[in-house]
Write a structure and sequence with these properties.
Strand order of the largest sheet: 1-2-3-4-5-6-7-8-9-10-11-12-13-14
Shape: globular
Order of helices and strands: HHHEEEEEEEEEEEEEE
Oligomer: single chain
Structural class: mainly beta
Strand content: over 45%
Number of domains: 1
């Protein structure tokens, strides 16, 4: 009965194409879901402008099992490739199971405007399948900007689906349109604090915050929280040479725990 209730609650929300693919990454999940000021390959999904702050090829994969239900699993894979004048990224996302699922395939490009500013855009094919009888697809885009006034401080802003693309003109299924703005501040080499604000059309505001503490060059602890719905988050990251493993859990007081796992592999150009 508990699982049936969760299904009814969640599928009502997901049926109107809620934000199941953003933010992504276990590192982000552990620090309250803050992501708009972060960098690396998960920026392909979270804020494309953040792709430019790495000069190495990155391949990342991510999985979360919402409220520990296999039918509510989300999977993601990304490839980030830096070039001399721009950075290119590819992402593949899947959520759901055979009777209901969502997919997103996106390509992103970003470049530095100067040593402090970066700008990026992304185009995506987004689709929903409901059983075998109903399918809908649409193209959409998002754009992002990041500003680094110092090496320890970063600001980010991202706008998702600014054209307000719809899955179908014949029904009320809409892809969400929202904007996020946030900051990431490194107090030292060990301590980082993030804060972020999100506003979606027709939905309440969301505030996220979190911090990470590097207790060893290879091991980091993280925690955070977010609102609407209220979630407590925590996790850890381990780094071995070119491989990074991030684990996290987010807790909803009614629906329970969602585990998150990311793997990132860095290749030297």
């Amino acid at each position: 009965m508990k699982h049936l209730l969760i299904y009814l609650l969640l599928m009502t929300r997901f049926a109107v194409a809620q934000k199941v693919f953003n933010p992504l990454g276990a590192e982000s999940a552990a620090i309250g879901g803050t992501a708009v000021a972060n960098s690396g390959s998960f920026a392909i999904q979270n804020n494309v402008a953040g792709m430019v702050w790495t000069d190495k090829v990155e391949v990342s994969v991510y999985n979360e099992m919402r409220y520990r239900l296999t039918n509510l699993s989300l999977s993601n894979a990304n490839v980030l490739m830096p070039f001399k004048r721009f950075h290119l990224g590819f992402g593949v996302n899947h959520f759901g199971y055979d009777l209901y699922n969502q997919q997103k395939f996106n390509i992103a490009i970003a470049r530095k405007l100067n040593s402090q500013f970066s700008l990026g855009v992304s185009m995506a094919l987004f689709g929903i399948n409901i059983s075998e009888n109903s399918q809908a697809f649409t193209f959409m885009g998002d754009m992002g900007l990041q500003y680094k006034p110092t090496k320890n401080l970063n600001f980010g802003i991202s706008i998702f689906n600014p054209t307000q693309s719809k899955l179908s003109e014949n029904n009320n299924v809409k892809v969400p349109t929202y904007a996020r703005i946030g900051t990431s501040f490194h107090f030292s080499e060990k301590l980082m604090i993030n804060a972020e604000f999100e506003k979606s059309l027709g939905l309440p505001e969301i505030f996220r915050s979190g911090f990470a503490y590097k207790i060893h060059p290879a091991f980091t602890l993280r925690t955070g929280a977010s609102t609407n719905p209220f979630l407590l988050t925590f996790g850890a990251g381990v780094k071995w040479s070119k491989l990074k493993v991030d684990m996290a859990a987010s807790y909803h007081q009614i629906l329970g725990v969602t585990p998150h796992l990311s793997l990132i592999c860095v290749f030297v150009n």
